[in-house]
Amino acid sequence: MYHSVGQGASSAFRRWQVDPGLFAEQLGALVDAGYRLVGLSAALDEPDERTVAVTFDDGFVDFLGATELLVAAGCGATLYVPTAHVARRARWMAGYREAELRIMDWSELSEVAAAGIEVGSHGHAHAELDLMPAHLMRADILLSRRMLADRLGRPVRSFCYPFGYHTRTVRSAVASAGFASACEVGYGLHPRAGDAFAVRRLIVTGDTRPADMRRLVTEGQDSPVMQLRRRTRTPWRIYRAAHHIATRSHAEAEPGD
Ligand SMILES: [Zn+2]
User: Fold this and answer.
1) 21-39, pLDDT tens digit by residue?
2) What's domain 4-222's superfamily in CATH?
3) 3-state helix vs strand vs coil in the chain, percent to 5
4) Does the predicted model carry a pTM greater than 0.85?
5) 96, CA 20 to 30 Å: which among 48, 50, 140, 256?
6) Quick one: which of 26, 95, 92 has its CA closest to 54?
7) How many A from CA of 221 to the centre of ligand 1?
8) Cα separation of 115 and 112, whole Å?
């Protein structure tokens, strides 16, 4: 799971941005070790010990450069886009001092799809779906899927929960909207028999060394801290709801939760 491949991130976001040269080396390390790097739907269609799904969240404009590197390395990927923010600035990134980051426009997204990258939904408004009234949550999910299908003319099979937050109600809304899979954060390897609507991911950061990539995809990143956070997720969700914290920053959420 990546967010940005580029340079010049704020100090708060730097860890989540991977330098283009390093990104190429990270991909190369797995390709050289015999792994097949594909999009999320392709990986679920043909699961294999040596298949790794590459995913990107948010659709920042620097993904155009990442696409070139992916294609050059013979790799696929899935990009998850929050449709309300297409061609706009990533306001939810204010916590990272990156609210001016631009999300790709529709023609750039078409270019990416034509290069063989799967484009999935990251919801419409990039909202905390688990805290929304159910009818608005369902509408957000459906709208994002319809917009992607209409504008890109391709099947939209995969979803990614904004900030990684989901509940049973959210998962069933995503399934009812016609998606075949959905990603959380998870910090782990997705078991073959695992829930396709709670696909776990590993976070690759700007300090993930190419030499560590193979260990990452075989061992995951289940540190005791991460396990503790997962156990405390439900109380935290209740706390958020009680305090109407509707606009948490990415800094607290997606990469760290
Ligand atoms: Zn996101």
Assistant:
1) 999 999 999 999 999 999 9
2) Glycoside hydrolase/deacetylase (3.20.20.370)
3) 45, 15, 40
4) yes
5) 140
6) 26
7) 20
8) 5
